[in-house]
Fold this sequence. Notes:
Blueprint: H1 6-21, H2 27-35, H3 47-50, E1 56-59, E2 62-64, H4 67-76, E3 85-88, H5 94-100, E4 106-110, H6 113-125, E5 131-134, E6 147-152, H7 161-165, E7 167-178, E8 183-192, E9 195-204
The protein binds S-adenosyl-L-homocysteine (SAH).
The site of S-adenosyl-L-homocysteine has 25 residues, from strand 2, helix 5 and strand 4.
Amino acid sequence: MQTDxxxxxxxxxxLVKQLxxxxxxxxxxxxxxxxxxxxxxxxxxxxxxxxxxxxFPIGEGQTISxxxxxxFQSELLxxxxxxxxxxxxxxxxxxxxxxxxxxxxxxxxEYNRPLFExxxxxxxxHGLNPHTFHGDGSLGLPAYAPYDKIIVTxxxxxxxxxxxxxxxxxxxxxxxxxxxxxxxxLRITRVEENEFTKExxxxxxxxxxxGRSGWSGGE
Length: 219
Ligand code: SAH
């Protein structure tokens, strides 16, 4: 059984302090990071790493996103209580668990079967209830659309049109887009049925988004 002690909570407070110094302002997001035990997603041997502001391997060639990136993307989403959110790239389940602190209405889809199974088990063991799916999220999750917010946690070559279609009017898509080396963080808002605005927020490095509208689209 995993435990969350004063020591872990102290490590999280220190992490939140760092995130604030790096420019994260949204108090609800900072509270969520302070609440979620990130060490639950790590092997016991890697406790120190769990509370460093770094990405870390989670197996299957994938990574748990850096806390700063999780906070930054969460902040860009401007989540309101009860917003319906789609996360593409469940991975470890950490970002999803952070989102669940901000709204109970989270859908998350993962392409990699072993990671999907592991995350699902994690949610079940911790009494968390996101809607979990296994499949290609580069096409979104049309069966449950529209979403108030969509967050992509893997680097995309382009903005998939399918994701724009699955936003509510007023909805927001946060997605890193670029080449294999770096991706620019984009926030796209559906201001009207057929009108979108795009804002850019600096460079990040994600593992590639696979699938039809991702890097395996041409195959
Ligand atoms: N949000 C995750 C970050 C995981 S890294 C976390 O908090 O840990 C990105 C994840 O996206 C990987 O697990 C990868 O398998 C997944 N992924 C890549 N392409 C995908 C696709 N087309 N659909 C769904 N998931 C995808």
